[in-house]
Design goal:
- The chain is α/β, with parallel strands linked by helices and 95 residues long.
- It has one domain (7-90): 3-Layer(aba) Sandwich (Oxidized Rhodanese, domain 1).
- 32% of the residues lie in helices and 18% in strands.
- The chain has four helices and four strands; from the N terminus they run αβαβαβαβ.
- A four-stranded parallel beta sheet has the order 2-1-3-4, sandwiched between helices.
- Strand 3, helix 4 (66-77) and strand 4 form a beta-alpha-beta unit.
- The protein starts with 6 loop residues before the first helix and ends in a 7-residue tail after the last strand.
- 27% of the residues are buried.
- The model has no long low-confidence stretch (mean pLDDT 94).
């Protein structure tokens, strides 16, 4: 699965105040997550407008990139405009 949004792109957005969103299940999130991530499981995406700031960029991630890709599609359909899919948490490279 090709993803043109890189770890470096994510770091830049996060330094500018983007929201880092982990779309894995709450039990996966509890086992560990990236720094300052918000947990919004894919199955709870309909609650996004109550949890996420629509004025800030969003960086999504999961394990393989499948759920983050689906989450991006859901958020765009809900009207979020600056949604970015990091794919796997392994693509995270911020210091």
């Amino acid at each position: 699965m090709f993803n043109s949004f890189s770890g470096d792109d994510a770091c830049k957005l996060l330094k500018e105040g983007a929201q880092l969103v982990d779309v894995r299940s709450s039990s996966e999130f509890a086992q560990g997550s990236l720094p300052n991530a918000i947990n919004l499981p894919l199955q709870s995406m309909m609650n996004a407008k109550n949890i996420l700031d629509t004025d800030k960029a969003i960086v999504l991630y999961c394990v393989s990139g499948a759920r983050s890709s689906a989450a991006k599609n859901h958020l765009v359909q809900m009207g979020f405009s600056n949604v970015n899919d990091l794919g796997s948490f392994k693509n995270y490279s911020c210091q």
